[in-house]
Amino acid sequence: MSSSTSAPEQSGENISKKAAKKEAAKLEKLRRKQEQEEAARKTSSLSLEDESFSGNYGDVTLTELQSTEDPSAGKWREAVEGKKWTDLSHLVEETVGSEVLIRGRVNTNRPVSNKKGFLVLRQSGFTVQCVATQSEETKVGVNFIKYLKQLSNESFVDVMGVVVLPKEEVKGTTQQVEIQVRKVYCVNSALPKLPLLVEDASRSEKEMEAGLSGANQDTRLNNRVIDLRTPANQAIFRIQGQVQKAFREFLDSKDFVEIHTPKLMAGSSEGGSAVFRLDYKGQPACLAQSPQ
């Protein structure tokens, strides 16, 4: 009697367990479906609202740059009107939480996905990481991220955003804060493919021997305007400037007067006819010309 009674009980327990598992699987499937629908709804909402976000990004027109007295000349002019510019060197922990307007060259552009992108801006040797995340809160839409992705290295851009302190140390930048991007405008776009990258020109011979891409001397000299932007060259100019400043300040403190005397040469330095010739104590002379 007891055995016949326990068998149906065990069978009932098995059925209830199977039913519970089936019900749990059904609920999990429903939950995933709801999450997918919610994500699709948000994406659709952002796509629809992206048109209203279009004023938060774009190329700056010449009219906007010239119309300094007309704040309604364009979306860039409206965005920056009355705002204070912040140097990248001033972006420190004390500025966390504040909204800033910065300008710099695109040092690196690293798109992560269709919803997120990273820019590293460079200004006078200082670099900072800017992060754009698609959301309604930041008013960053789908087309905003697409626009961010196509910005080429060395393009001149303006960024408005909020300074935040990242959870982990930012590698590869001088400033240890991040900018949560709200608006980005390209003032001057560089060519998509440059003959020389600052990153390559900055590498040493030892790094190139290790297999990293670099640039030889001819390439660097042929593209000197880009080569001068490397950290090493920028440091050289800054040291030279400080040495000259120290000499000038010392001589000024001793009441010296700085003068610029003409430099005379016996002949033309360029071999051309467009030089200033004069008679110097009975001998022909020319004013020295600056090197071309």
From TrEMBL:
UniProt keyword NAD present: no
GO cellular component: aminoacyl-tRNA synthetase multienzyme complex; cytosol
Pfam families recorded: tRNA-synt_2 (PF00152)
Domain annotation Aminoacyl-tRNA synthetase class II (D/K/N): ranges: 216-292
Keywords of the record: Aminoacyl-tRNA synthetase, ATP-binding, Cytoplasm, Ligase, Nucleotide-binding
Signal peptide span: none
Region (Disordered) residue spans: 1-52
Basic and acidic residues composition-biased segments: 21-41
InterPro entries: Aa-tRNA-synt_II (IPR004364), aa-tRNA-synth_II/BPL/LPL (IPR045864), Asp-tRNA_synthase_2 (IPR004523), NA-bd_OB-fold (IPR012340)
Highest taxon, organism lineage: Eukaryota
GO terms for biological process, alphabetical: aspartyl-tRNA aminoacylation
Transcription found in the keyword field: no
Biased composition (Polar residues): 1-14
GO molecular function: aspartate-tRNA ligase activity; ATP binding; RNA binding
Name of the protein: Aspartate--tRNA ligase, cytoplasmic
